[in-house]
Amino acid sequence: QVQLVESGGGLVQAGGSLRLSCVASGNIFSINVMRWHRQAPGKQRELVASITSGGSTNYADSVKGRFTISRDNAKNTVYLQMNNLKREDTAVYYCAARYSDPGLGIYGRDYWGQGTQVTVSS
Question: How crowded is residue 122: how many other Cβ atoms within 10 Å of its Cβ?
């Protein structure tokens, strides 16, 4: 079991910055990949960025060069630094953890946080 709690969302003007945090607890040693997703009103949830346990990162084309995902293993925390925010970045942002525990027969189970709202005004 993994629990995820996001924070850091809010209202920001276009061109501004925010940093989202996601604190993981529980059986964190079985987490393979941490991800940030977002869902805007009326749209499907989309992957924003991911980071593996080895530190490899991946980004959606729409955020490359503006967003940075990172992790602090000592704090069990994953961050999403968002710079040069645009109105189209407005969404609820969700943290997700991909969990596997072969000893329990669990492979690729996803856990989700409750989400944090990011609103970018013009």
Answer: 7
Helix (H, G, I), strand (E, B) or coil at 102: helix
Q: Which token pair is 83?
A: 């710079």
Which residue pairs from 109-112 have beta carbons closer than 8 angstroms and sit at least 24 positions apart in sequence? Answer: 111/1, 111/2, 111/3, 111/4, 112/4
**Residue 23 and residue 79: Cα distance in Å, rounded?**
9
pLDDT averaged over 10-residue windows placed end to end, the chain, 122 residues: 95 98 90 95 97 95 98 94 98 96 89 97 93
Sign of the alpha-carbon dihedral angle for 29, 72, 33, 14: positive
